[in-house]
Amino acid sequence: MTSPTTTQQAETTPLDLRDPSFRDRAYGIYDDLRAGCPMSKVRFVTRDDDGGALPGDDRRREMLEGDCWLVTHFDEGVEAMLDDRFTVNPARLLPPEQLAAMQAQAATADNELGRALGRNLLNLDPPDHTRLRRLVQPSFTGRNIAAMDDRVRRIAADLLDAAEREAAERGESAPYRMMDLVRSFAYPLPVTVISDMVGIPAEDRGKARTWTENLLKIDRADPEQAADIQQRLLEFVDYLKDLFEKRRREPQDDLISRLVRAEEDGDTLSPDELLSMVFIVYVAGFVTTVNLIGNVTVGLLSHTDALAAFRADPSLARNAVEETLRFWGPAESTLPRTAMEDVEIGGVVIRAGERIRAGLAAMDRDPEKFANPNVYDITRADANRHVAFGKGVHVCLGAPLARLEGEIAVETLFGRYPELRLAVPREEIRWSQDLLRGFERIPLLF
Ligand code: HEM
After folding, report:
1. Is the preceding peptide bond at 138 cis, omega within 30 degrees of 0?
2. What is the pTM of this model?
3. Mutate which of 397, 401, 405, 439 for ligand 1 pocket (most atoms within 8 A of beta carbon)
4. Which residue has the CA at smallest separation from atom 3 of ligand 1?
5. Of the chain's two ends, which shows fewer C-beta atoms within 10 Å, N or C?
């Protein structure tokens, strides 16, 4: 048995998310890190040293940057996600007087955004997390999501009708019509679905989109861009507050109406928690799924064997989605957790106060878990054993919805266009410089 490694011995590997080639190189880097140890010290670099604030409060910057352990081995990563000696709320480690000072700062008017959106599921530990998650979990059960099948199919078909009309207006005909999949399909599909579910009226969706655009873009030392994102978010918060009032007066069959009722029913949900919840469900509901739809489409169109297997057996759509989540999962890692005491995992000691992330993308390419992990194989029987949705109390709330949307997207696109193909070579389709793994634009011929 190996003796525990200490922090002092570990070197820090910088992972530069601003580098356009990072996403292409990431799996090689993970392979190297994994060969050495179950977890490694890394630093995600998202901004130049000489300036540029990330939108939101300091806590958000703190979450993205700074040294942390990245777990690259599958079993140890799962162990870390299930270990309740880690907290998502590092304020819990502060001495009482510092905590009080921090809470007083958090309550000030100039931290409106942090206050309004900070009490979301991803930032809270049990028991607050448990109380809040219980309020939304019923809307996301497999059965309730399956009931949305027809509606999602209709939205997908309408979007492709619109792309066909646009192509016809440009004088293009099949199979030489062009579309940018991201703009015409992968983005609007999940935005429309989650807006319906949350209860954002159709006429306001354009605005909601503008307010939440660029939220996850990598900051390139551009304080103006950061201020702009922050300003838009404040407008979104104001808009949501007005919408809550409307739903209080006239409830509808949507998530906002249900949560507003829960807030009124007693002390289950504070006003800030209501805002944070609607915000996180809305944003998490589309930012990741856009990338899943894009990644599975490019995955199939750029891997000849996978495409042939799928064309021969379209019932592989679900498994193609699972394999894409494993092979090109949108979330590279979980958000960081902080050790509340010394914790030993896989022979490594994570000292109290140190941070750790489960490296989901690295874990899903662990050869101890998946045979030939760097091969994209949609017929793999164990594809769905990936951890692209995380594990433990923070496991993705929207996983059943993301799976449904991914499957319907593949079935609709490939079912409708047998000659669908990439309009440019795969190498020319670039990963976006964003906190998630996904393509910026996907030019297709259909
Ligand atoms: C392919 C699509 C998606 C991926 C890859 C994904 C991934 C993840 C991951 C990895 C986490 C855990 C993060 C952590 O532990 O730090 C998470 C949490 C979460 N996801 Fe997703 N997600 C997807 C789609 C969705 C959708 C459609 C929704 C819609 C509501 C959603 C809502 C959430 C929420 C609310 C959380 C926080 C859960 C909690 O803290 O209890 N996600 N997601």
Report:
1. no
2. 0.93
3. 397
4. 288
5. N
